[in-house]
Please model this.
Amino acid sequence: MTSRPGGSYDGGMREPYPDGMPEPLDPHMFTDCPPVSPPIRLGGKWTAKIIRCLESGPRRFTELQIPLRGITPKVLTESLRAMERDGLLTRTAYDEIPPRVEYELTGLGRSLLEPMNAGCEWSRRHLPDLMRARDAWHAAIP
Amino acid sequence: MTSRPGGSYDGGMREPYPDGMPEPLDPHMFTDCPPVSPPIRLGGKWTAKIIRCLESGPRRFTELQIPLRGITPKVLTESLRAMERDGLLTRTAYDEIPPRVEYELTGLGRSLLEPMNAGCEWSRRHLPDLMRARDAWHAAIP
DNA sequence: CAGTATCCGCTTTGATACTG
DNA sequence: CAGTATCAAAGCGGATACTG
Model:
């Protein structure tokens, strides 16, 4: 029994990141709430996190990479493009050298914070229950 | 650009199902709300749907298979086991022949309906916006 | 800086067949 | 009925290298 539909897509999560680096964005993100069995997720693996990162204002590509802990440019690009396509954020490219691109939440994207917060609140309230359930399970079937 | 972080896990969704069959459970499920780019998902692919199926009372294994539209027994078992482990539902086996097993939401599982409904409400309210965004995108980059 | 372009691989899901 | 056992196929994200 290796499959965990409750929280498994994160299999390839990379932790190694050059620490000591500044984190311009608040790392307190939605998906950080539930350390066990993420109850609610949004779109792909990064969508919710990106929304949290943009909550307090527009950010640049590289700025997003920092709090997203080593997300590869390919995946970040894909995620941003998808969110742009869905009207969750806007992409503004400034014609400068070096290039500058800023991503900003749209009203639609921002409106997602509400249900996200509902999920977050659920996590806060029921995390102890989840932990207890997990413990009971492991105690019964070790 | 083939990957869509906003709505891709459902890639292998099978539609072919012997119709004419009765559907004992209400097919109006959370994940049915957003026809485009599912905004909020719960755990694995089936978790939210299973919760909806159990909303109005306990159901048997085979009963769940009907509204879940051809989910394979393997995957259904995995999902149910995971949810049982997380304390979202209980599994009760009756020692009869033929065997009977019933699955029922716990209070914890039922409490998830609240954030789920929040996501559902978001979908209802903003589906037009999503559609418009998608249309605009396709109009610009055909 | 802000990406593209390839290649890669585990995880998750599904198909099919078989039991207690 | 309620699963388990295998096998097979994507899915989705990641590593690495390379541009305008």
Remarks:
- Chain A touches chain B through 48 residues (CB under 8 Å).
